[in-house]
Amino acid sequence: MSTNVPDALKDFRSLWWLFVVFGVITLAAGVILIVWPGPSLVTIAVIIGIFLLVDGVIEVIASIAGKGEGRGLVAMLGVLSIIAGLILVKHPFSALAALVIIVGIWFIVSGVARFVAAFSDSEYRGTNIAVGLLDVVAGIVVLAWPDLSLKTLAVLAGIIFVIRGCAFVYGGLQIRKLPKDPGGLAPAVA
After folding, report:
1. Per-residue CA distances from 23 to 2, 29, 58, 132, 173 (Å)
2. pLDDT winner (highest mean) among 17-26, 135-144, 176-185
3. Is the pLDDT of residue 2 over 50?
4. Mapped to the 3 state alphabet, what secondary structure does the chain carry?
5. Fold of the CATH domain 14-178
6. Is the pLDDT of residue 142 over 90?
7. Taking the chain, what is the end-to-end CA distance rounded to the nearest angstrom?
8. Higher pLDDT pick, 165 / 178
9. How many CB atoms lie within 10 A of CB 16?
10. pLDDT tens profile 84-95
11. b/e string for 127-159 if b means 16 or more Cβ within 10 A?
12. How many CB atoms lie within 10 A of CB 94?
């Protein structure tokens, strides 16, 4: 007796490198923000905007390809990330307070959405809960002190990007370890 695993698993496995590439780019952006926190607000706004755009597109794709009750929430998070990213790329803010509020709200919405979605899907529940809580805490810290200096915001965003980048790289490598043959997931015949 074998379980038929859809060919979609094979297709999904072949895209492992996308997760790794996105993770490396996110990790690099985080390191740049930590090492050189003094660049202009416009540069940081554009970097964060690009991250939000890419993250939003990935969230929308994940909601379309995924299963479970949390798909709508993930899609909503993706659309919000895309909108926030477009605003930051198209109209970089000249005032730190506006950027701080947008980033803080995005971290909180992202964290709450991930936290809630973690309970509708048991796979990677612990990782989603941890990332969700981390995002919520980061958002609260950013919103609690809106007069943060540019360097503090850049370092905080950099730390979050480094953690998320590592998570994407790890996830991509785990996806790569999935069996090449969907039949390889079939249980042994007793």
Report:
1. 35, 10, 12, 17, 11
2. 17-26
3. no
4. CCCCCCHHHHHHHCCHHHHHHHHHHHHHHHHHHHHCCCCCHHHHHHHHHHHHHHHHHHHHHHHHHCCCCCHHHHHHHHHHHHHHHHHHHHCCCCCHHHHHHHHHHHHHHHHHHHHHHHCCCCCCHHHHHHHHHHHHHHHHHHHHCCCCCHHHHHHHHHHHHHHHHHHHHHHHHHHHCCCCCHHHHCCCCC
5. 1.25.40
6. no
7. 9
8. 165
9. 17
10. 888 888 877 655
11. ebbbbbebbbebbeebbeeeebebebbbbbbbe
12. 11
pLDDT digits (tens, 9 = 90+) for 44-87: 778 788 888 999 998 898 888 877 777 888 888 889 989 888 88
Q: Tokens for 30, please give them.
A: 């985080």
- Whose tokens are 């993930």? That residue is 74
Query: Which residue has tokens 């993770």?
Result: 23
Cα–Cα distance list, 44 to 4, 67, 155, 164 (Å): 47, 35, 11, 17
Question: Do residues 10 and 178 touch, judged by C-beta distance below 8 A?
Answer: no
